[in-house]
Model the fold of this input.
Amino acid sequence: MRGALASLMVAGLALAACDRPTESEEGQAVVARTAESDLPAWLSPTDGTDPARWLAGREAGHPVPAGSDSVRALQDALAEARAVFIEDPRMIANRTAQLGQMLAEIGKTERSASLLTGFSAVAARRGRHKSLYGEMCQHYFNTRARGIDHAAALALLADRFAPGPGPGEAP
Done:
């Protein structure tokens, strides 16, 4: 009986501890948050918001339902991007939103899903060598700012990020 009571107390203490914020190495509490009714300017490392839902909401100008077509399309696009880029989906979503803002400022508005799928197709050609999403965004923006259209900019990226010979292979 005493063993069962002790086990129950340990389990209760463990469950109670789950609700407490954890301490980071710097001694500051880290608390995850989820935005359901507002759209933060950027997704922080502790933000629990679905990056696809956040990005869809940013594009729409207001929060969108989790099961909407735009969220599902962005979830698929982010999953595809995650497979070929080093960055995580949260960072990819932040960079996509940033690129979207930069493009809009020069009069070249584009859909986030189109950017994500286009960049993923370029990066997928590299095979097992993952690419840097932020670097690709910057090159794309510079190309578009020179007046080159979306398809041509992706073609230039494909050339720039084409897989090269591996170590010990002839060019």
Q: What stands out?
A: The helical segments are 2-18, 51-60, 69-84, 89-105, 112-124, 133-145, 150-160. The first strand starts at residue 22 and ends at 23. The chain has a mean pLDDT of 81. The chain has seven helices and two strands.
